[in-house]
Every structure is written in structure tokens, then in C-alpha cells.
């Protein structure tokens, strides 16, 4: 049975909840279409660890650099999945919850809070990031890691570092990347031009190439390198041979398999699906594909699971995918049936919070 709802816009489901907009105000529905969080906020974000950021009083503003709209000002708090505003909208800035803690800015103070809104985590002020697997990056002149008591677990000896993911964190020293475990042991030496976090037991690594500065983007970029995949022992499972590669999702990764051809490989490096868009990823067993100006979905064997009839389509989350078919927006299930319909006109792009968790002004 299709549920028809009166909303102007919506986002993907995450943790069983999707943000929706009515008359410029945002709330959340669950997968049955029930409005759990009333549409009364000026901006909301996806749920993380059972909590979602919400903002009251902010104003939309436009960033020419990102070509996106953001919420500026107002105060931010958190709601839970029952719709209860557990932490009132009182903070200038707030990060997602990670490992049960969120960084917030209260006046001039940057602190960690727990899910009840009480101050928690390190008591001393540190230039630190969000916690991941019990540790958080922090910066003096170099990067290291602290635990939730504020004790230094891994000293500040690295030029750059990523969060812990699947038991390891990527670290950079002298422009070479490797991985450390949560005791600070460098289990994979710093020998790669670049590296990404582990996903499904595999991490992308780069060899060769040169770093250059892009004046238009205002950042360094790496060109002329080759990309491969290592496992957690540091073994190069798939050789560094690709010019383009994505992380593994559902056991498959999109790579270039020719000069102008892209396809999916499995974790042995075997090509299992050919001729896909370079940004294609699998999510919950299905991947969005393009056929002309329409989108559909394929399964992990490359067979068409949902024919290409959509003008816009997004990845599956919580067994539902947001799509636009003709003038109708809504959510389909994995059979391709529209189960939640929420608008028969083009939906506006939703506003975002002004900074991401990587860019909080700490």
C-alpha cells in the first residue's frame, strides 16, 4: 500500500528515520511514514547513534565556494528517535555523536557532552576531534590520540592522521602514510603516497605520483599515482594499478578497468561487473545505474533489479531509496514499488549545518 504524505522535501533514511520539510520547517518520519519529530526546526541532520542535530532560529545562506545552502546562526540541540528533544537547542555549534560523545560550543567554551547533555569526556581544553573507537585525534604541532579521560595514548608525532576505523587509524609522517593500532604500534609502515580508512577489511593506498597545489581549490592534490588495496596485515591484496578507485561496499568496489571504462571488482581483484558510472556504489545489495537520462538499479551480479524509469535516484538505506519519477518524489522499496510519496513538484535542496565535524572551529 502506498502512503501519500504532504511534504515539500525529504532526505534519505538513516537509522530508520528520514528528515522531511513542510512550509520551510523540518522534522522526521519513520519508515512507516509516521511523523515522529514535528516539522518545527529550521535545520536538521541525519541520525547518528540514535541522536540527530536540530536547529532553531538559523537563517539560510548561500556558499558560492560549495554551491550549497547552509544554516547560519540560531542554536543547535539534539532529538532522539522518539521525537523527544533530549538536549535543548542552546549551542552555537554541535558535532554528531561519536562513541557516545559530541563536541559542542557553548559560548567561548568547546566541550564534550554525553547523550543526556551532561559534560563528559576530557576535562582539559584540547584541539581535538570526535571520538572513534575510544580515541580522538588531537593536535599540538603534530597529531596524536587521546582517550576519553584526556590521557595521551599515542604521542603527537604525526603530520596528519585519520580517525580509527576497524581497529586501525591512518597516519602520515614525512609525506608518507601508514596505519597504527589503538596502542600506537605502527602495524603498517608509513610508505604510501596516500591512504584511506579501512572499509570492510580493505584500505585504498596510493603509490608514486606528485603533490601539487591547486590555486582554484586552495588545496594540495596528488596526481600521477596508482591505487590498490591492502588488508589489515599490510598485504597488498590488489596491486596498485588503478587510476581511479572507490572503497568496498557490499564486497565490491568501483575502479577504472580501461582508459574510459569503469566496473566493479571483488576482493580478489576480479572484475565482476562492467560498464558502470564511476560514482556507482552498492548499498544494501543494489547499486544505482544510469541508462541515458533515466536511473535504475542493478544487483551484485550486474542484472537489472529495478528498471531505469527514474529522473533522480539515490542509494538504498533502511530498505528504501528516494527517487523522482516524472513529477513525483518519494521512496521505493527493493521491488521498485513507490511506498511513500511526498511531493508532486520538484523538491528544494535542504539546508545543511554551517560546518562539518571535520571543520568545527576548535
Q: Which characteristics define this entry?
A:
single chain, mainly beta, 5-stranded mixed β-sheet, 4-stranded antiparallel β-sheet
Task: Explain the overall architecture.
By secondary structure, the chain is mainly β. A hairpin with a 5-residue loop joins strand 22 and strand 23. The protein has no helices and 38 strands. The strands form ten sheets. Strands 1-38-37-36-35 form a five-stranded mixed sheet, with no helix packed on it. It has a four-stranded antiparallel sheet with strand order 2-3-4-5, with no helix packed on it. The C terminus is likely disordered.
The number of helical runs is 0
| Most strands sheet | 5 strands, mixed
User: For the largest beta sheet, what order do the strands appear in spatially?
Assistant: 1-38-37-36-35
Mean pLDDT: 89
Q: Kindly state the number of beta strands.
A: 38
Helix content: under 10%
- N- to C-terminal separation? 49 Å
List low-pLDDT spans.
356-362
Sheet-strand content, in percent, reads: over 45%
Q: Could you say which structural class the secondary elements and strand pairing correspond to?
A: mainly beta
Shape: globular
From the alpha carbons, calculate the radius of gyration and give it in angstroms. 22 Å
Amino acid at each position: 500500500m502506498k502512503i501519500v504524505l504532504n511534504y515539500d522535501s525529504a532526505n534519505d533514511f538513516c537509522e530508520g528515520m528520514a528528515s522531511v520539510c513542510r512550509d520551510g520547517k523540518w522534522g522526521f518520519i519513520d519508515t512507516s511514514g509516521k511523523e515522529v519529530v514535528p516539522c518545527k526546526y529550521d535545520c536538521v541532520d541525519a541520525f547518528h547513534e540514535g541522536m540527530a542535530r536540530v536547529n532553531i532560529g538559523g537563517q539560510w545562506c548561500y556558499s558560492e565556494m560549495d554551491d550549497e545552502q547552509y544554516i547560519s546562526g540560531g542554536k543547535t540541540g539534539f532529538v532522539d528517535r522518539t521525537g523527544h528533544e533530549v538536549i535543548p537547542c542552546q549551542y552555537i555549534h554541535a558535532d554528531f555523536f561519536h562513541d557516545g560523545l559530541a563536541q559542542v560550543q557553548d559560548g567561548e567554551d568547546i566541550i564534550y557532552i554525553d547523550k543526556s547533555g551532561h559534560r563528559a569526556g576530557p576535562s582539559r581544553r584540547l584541539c581535538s576531534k570526535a571520538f572513534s573507537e575510544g580515541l580522538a585525534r588531537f593536535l599540538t604541532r603534530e597529531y596524536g590520540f587521546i582517550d576519553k579521560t584526556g590521557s595521551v595514548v599515542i604521542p603527537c608525532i604525526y603530520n596528519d592522521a585519520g580517525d580509527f576505523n576497524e581497529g586501525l587509524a591512518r597516519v602520515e609522517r614525512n609525506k608518507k602514510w601508514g596505519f597504527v593500532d589503538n596502542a600506537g604500534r605502527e602495524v603498517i609502515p608509513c610508505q604510501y603516497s596516500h591512504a584511506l580508512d579501512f572499509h570492510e577489511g580493505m584500505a585504498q593506498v596510493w603509490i608514486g605520483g606528485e603533490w601539487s597545489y591547486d590555486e582554484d581549490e586552495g588545496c594540495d592534490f596528488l596526481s600521477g599515482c596508482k591505487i590498490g588495496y591492502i588488508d589489515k596485515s599490510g598485504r597488498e591484496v590488489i596491486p596498485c594499478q588503478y587510476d581511479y578507485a572507490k572503497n568496498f561496499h557490499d564486497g565490491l568496489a568501483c575502479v577504472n578497468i580501461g582508459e574510459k571504462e569503469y566496473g566493479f571488482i571483488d576482493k580478489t581483484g576480479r572484475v565482476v561487473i562492467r560498464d558502470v558510472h564511476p560514482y556507482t556504489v552498492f548499498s544494501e545489495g543494489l547499486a544505482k545505474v544510469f541508462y541515458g537520462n533515466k536511473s535504475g538499479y542493478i544487483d551484485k551480479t550486474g542484472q537489472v533489479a529495478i528498471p531505469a524509469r527514474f529522473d533522480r535516484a539515490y542509494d538504498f538505506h533502511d530498505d528504501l531509496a528516494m527517487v523522482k519519477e516524472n513529477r513525483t518524489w518519494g521512496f521505493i522499496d527493493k521491488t521498485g514499488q513507490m511506498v511513500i510519496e511526498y511531493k508532486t513538484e520538484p523538491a528544494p535542496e535542504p539546508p545543511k549545518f554551517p560546518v562539518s565535524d571535520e571543520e568545527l572551529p576548535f
